[in-house]
Specification:
By secondary structure, the chain is an alpha+beta fold. It is built from six helices and 28 strands. It is elongated and about 70 Å long. The site of one 2-acetamido-2-deoxy-beta-D-glucopyranose (NAG) has 8 residues, from loops.
Length: about 475
């Protein structure tokens, strides 16, 4: 941005940038930024100033009819006034200019028209060959967010109606490149008796389950560098805070000191780091989160110590699922001896049969009665893909020939065919290709599992919906 060796230049750049700081904290400009208002004919005006374009300008493939529908009541938020309904498997194809992790946000706002009641839709969603949602249905507004590491020139997002009579829908789609520092390479894997290094974090896919501005107000996409929504840690948002009497909220109006190689403004914005919850006593602060079984979770904890009077007067323990994940954590040491400087820690945790993930901040023996006993500014809980690479697998992802997602495989086979000059080779490859197709036909195809509990999706959707909506 600015040349640090030329102070005049830096000052000039700062002056130039100043109005943008005031308007919005979104200085990050993603290489890929596909914002789609499905079924819309106009560009809706949003509070965060982003421009979502009608999906008529997208590559949309469908094996059946699709319908652009709009909410007859017309008092819903701009992005939720229209939707695209799919009667058969359908896909949007997005060009990827920059490989790496992409944020995919899917907006579902189930209104009702004379032809379609969107809350009766039940469907599956896949992206980049990963099952994101299966047997998904919702009667309340839901925003689903996924982080997918993309290593291809295009990203296909597909919708599959769950039954022949049913249909799928979506109101808006965001496909946005994530900044390189959003997901690091390693995390701390918390086990009952020890903490190990978890490698390959940046190769995992994630679904955001909870994103909380601990001790602070709701942060909307307008005030977030990556257009995220952070909910407050108040009651009624699907999780529980224990011992709330043993803590208090604090806020900071000074300048947050972002450091090079530290947590950046894209990792979490000022609004998250400038509010916190601190313990009031030598009790634990504990939050309990219901999550689905069968997956690992990434727990990202955000810290910024503006509450201590001086450096090295804040020591606390961090517990994940009741296990000691970090003993005597010293935030001053972590930030290279700076106060009001952000820092985050990534933990990976398994979930027991309870289906609950608990996060605790507890007193350290190194602390002193006159010091702050513990602090937390922000918390994100992300579901990680299972060993099959999927994020929701109540229904195995199986594709048939006419499914648009299959076309990618067909193209791949064709491109191999073109590469060979000799007829004999062609024949061999063709036979192999036919075999591959036959095998795929046998192994791929949607088939619901009998274990699926009706309505379970609704409950899950509600948990996220109440917090993650951007209106
Ligand atoms: C953005 O943040 C500022 C400062 O915290 C707040 O006053 C304002 O209401 C927020 N704006 C929106 C649209 O959320
Ligand atoms: C805090 O929670 C941990 C884990 O559940 C427990 O071992 C510890 O004793 C608790 N500390 C206090 C002060 O209650
Ligand atoms: C997620 O998927 C990747 C790639 O398919 C795989 O290597 C990784 O082990 C999976 N993660 C988990 C936690 O199973």
């Amino acid at each position: 941005m600015a040349n640090p060796r030329n102070p005049n230049h830096s000052l000039f750049s700062l002056l130039l940038l100043f109005p943008f700081f005031v308007l919005s904290s979104s200085l990050y400009s993603p290489q890929d930024n596909h914002l789609v208002a499905c079924g819309s004919t106009s560009v809706p005006a949003l509070a965060d100033h982003r421009r979502f374009f009608p999906d008529s300008s997208c590559h949309l493939h469908s094996s059946g009819a699709t319908f652009a529908v709009s909410d007859p009541s017309r008092d819903s938020p701009p992005l939720h006034r229209t939707a695209r309904v799919f009667s058969k498997p359908s896909s949007y194809e997005f060009r990827v200019k920059e490989k790496g992790t992409h944020l995919i946000r899917l907006h579902f706002y189930p209104f009702s028209t004379s032809d379609f009641n969107l809350s009766s839709a039940s469907f599956h969603v896949a992206a980049y060959g990963i099952s994101l949602l299966s047997n998904f249905a919702t009667s309340v507004p839901v925003l689903k967010e996924f982080l997918i590491p993309v290593d291809a020139e295009k990203l296909v997002v597909s919708f599959f109606p769950a039954e022949k009579s049913s249909f799928a829908f979506v109101n808006a789609i965001e496909v946005v490149s994530a900044p390189g520092d959003l997901i690091g390479h390693t995390a701390s894997l918390v086990k009952p008796d020890q903490v190990e290094i978890f490698n390959g974090l940046s190769r995992q896919s994630f679904e955001t389950i909870y994103r909380i501005n601990i001790g602070g107000p709701k942060v909307t996409p307008f005030n977030d560098s990556l257009w995220r929504t952070w909910v407050p840690d108040t009651e009624g948002l699907g999780f529980v805070k224990l011992d709330s009497s043993a803590s208090k909220t604090v806020s900071f109006s000074g300048r947050i000191s972002y450091r090079k190689y530290g947590a950046s403004r894209e990792v979490a914005p000022d609004n998250v780091y400038s509010t916190a919850r601190v313990s009031d006593s030598d009790h634990n602060m504990t939050w309990v989160f219901p999550v689905s079984l069968g997956y690992r979770y990434l727990v990202r904890m955000h810290f910024c110590d503006f509450a201590s009077v001086t450096l090295n007067q804040l020591y606390f323990n961090i517990y994940v699922n009741g296990y000691l994940a970090y003993k005597n954590f010293d935030l001053s040491d972590a930030t290279g001896q700076l106060l009001a400087s952000p820092f985050y820690i990534d933990f990976v945790a398994d979930v027991g049969s309870s289906g609950l993930l608990t996060i605790g901040i507890g007193p350290s023996k190194l602390s002193n009665p006159s010091w702050v006993p513990g602090l937390l500014n922000g918390l994100e809980i992300m579901k990680m893909n299972n060993t099959f690479g999927n994020l929701d697998e109540q229904v195995p992802l199986v594709l048939t020939m006419e499914d648009p997602a299959f076309r990618g495989i067909g193209e791949f086979v064709r491109s191999i065919l073109c590469g060979f000059a000799f007829t004999s080779l062609l024949v061999v490859v063709f036979i192999l290709a036919l075999r591959l197709r036959a095998e795929l036909r046998n192994t791929l195809g949607w088939s619901p599992l009998p274990t699926d509990v009706p309505g379970s999706k609704l409950a899950k959707g509600y948990t996220v919906a109440s917090g993650m909506l951007d209106f």
